[in-house]
Amino acid sequence: xxxxxxxxxxxxxxxxxxxxxxxxxxxxxxxxxxxxxxxxxxxxxxxxxxxxxxxxxxxxxxxxxxxxxxxxxxxxxxxxxxxxxxxxxxxxxxxxxxxxxxxxxxxxxxxxxxxxxxxxxxxxxxxxxxxxxxxxxxxxxxxxxxxxxxxxxxxxxxxxxxxxxxxxxxxxxxxxxxxxxxxxxxxxxxxxxxxxxxxxxxxxxxxxxxxxxxxxxxxxxxxxxxxxxxxxxxxxxxxxxxxxxxxxxxxxxxxxxxxxxxxxxxxxxxxxxxxxxxxxxxxxxxxxxxxxxxxxxxxxxxxxxxxxxxxxxxxxxxxxxxxxxxxxxxxxxxxxxxxxxxxxxxxxxxxxxxxxxxxxxxxxxxxxxxxxxxxxxxxxxxxxxxxxxxxxxxxxxxxxxxxxxxxxxxxxxxxxxxxxxxxxxxxxxxxxxxxxxxxxxxxxxxxxxxxxxxxxxxxxxxxxxxxxxxxxxxxxxxxxxxxxxxxxxxxxxxxxxxxxxxxxxxxxxxxxxxxxxxxxxxxxxxxxxxxxxxxxxxxxxxxxxxxxxxxxxxxxxxxxxxxxxxxxxxxxxxxxxxxxxxxxxxxxxxxxxxxxxxxxxxxxxxxxxxxxxxxxxxxxxxxxxxxxxxxxxxxxxxxxx
Length: 641
Prior knowledge:
By secondary structure, the chain is α/β, with parallel strands linked by helices. It contains 23 helices and 22 strands. Helix content is 37%, strand content 19%. Strand 21, helix 23 (616-628) and strand 22 (634-637) form a beta-alpha-beta unit.
């Protein structure tokens, strides 16, 4: 494991403040000039079940997390039972000593398979306490650090004149502060992080800082026992600490988006909630100020048709959903394809089928997105591999939709959407707004009669919007002529199909190669990793490690899935001695798509479908195995609770 990248995990029941603790920890590291990468894992119920947040910190770029933990923080017993085993020798566990006596059998939220594994680790006993587990891991070199939250809360209460029972929310910030103290991290960035979270409530911030400092000092004597250290430094460039959902929302704002519809669904809803919180959104415009309408529809059918209606008026419009909601949007998607409407759908991928794993990640919607809807119509399907890409891709989605007058499906993995990372400050000027063949009033006046679906050399017809003077046209779900009138004439049908589908060739020619795929690492590699979406981070974090191991490695990240860059991919595959595909799905959907589009069947697949993201160290082990043995055609990754 790379000990430059230090892993901190906080766990607890959902609704107990785990996310708040992780936010403060991540900000403290970011304010100290460190690079940060965080992943959140949680159950699909509202409260009670176990959730945990991993935050990686380093003085170099980090894009993925490891399975092992350097410091674990908890204020309840379940986290001790679940995660103590992953703490490295030389690391530490911060825990409430009141948890020692809790029996494993008394915790109903732990799955039977996890209970079985814990008891096996304890030598096959029929039950055990949290204290037994702590003793076992301590014998292997882990420092266990009891932190009496009750006594600390009592001390804080005396200083601020409040009853300890009303201060339980301070437990989260205490766990964070104690953890950073064990890492030898300076306190000022912690204080700054607390202030940033509670900046609208200065008195609350002051009290939280007091509680944090008490916890920080309380564990100071244990600091020498922890081998791993975090040191604040000056950041080399301005950075943001954002989630993937935030990045997409900000990208839509920067890209000129003015309408978003949605029906609540995990994990897509986060993006729309973020848009609703922005002052430039909702119904807060004045005078001629641009409005951004965010509407919660009654269902996904209404959401997609609302977005289509907004796009027909000339507004840059989008909707956001996840797998089950996307299923309901199919008729609307086909209608937008038939009528050449510039619709953007942000599709956040989660575990399926059906309700599946609503709060877990997967890459199971690729082939569905490429072929979704009955009949044939052109669409663009492309994916983002990380948080930074998500911002710029959200802007590009609008450009693609309007330039080529096709629906655009932007794929974002749940791991990216719910992940958090420090990124370079976004530059909104990098992506220019391109509205395509959008007619002005003067241009429209010269076209009589106006033919909305006019046959053109490249299949893209000059576009008027609903309500534009002189721009009368018809929209229907039926096949139509250039005016939009319904027809079943076989000759017109042939011409219209060729007009629409011919756009795929135009798209393939006009979109630059660097927006279709990205290549990293060695040219003509011994090992070529092919992947898409969220696997990017773990692959990139492993490239240098593999190079140091003497394996010349390259990574082909495919972004554009439709139209697929077949010739470019074929050329890169031809240069590699051993290609392997890495995906978060069962069947290897990208592997199948490559075979379909290029005729090349990549023999080796590394797959993960537990609903958990690909971890850096488990992927490294798998890559070494498939590289050393060409007969291994399938490796399945399973690490992660």
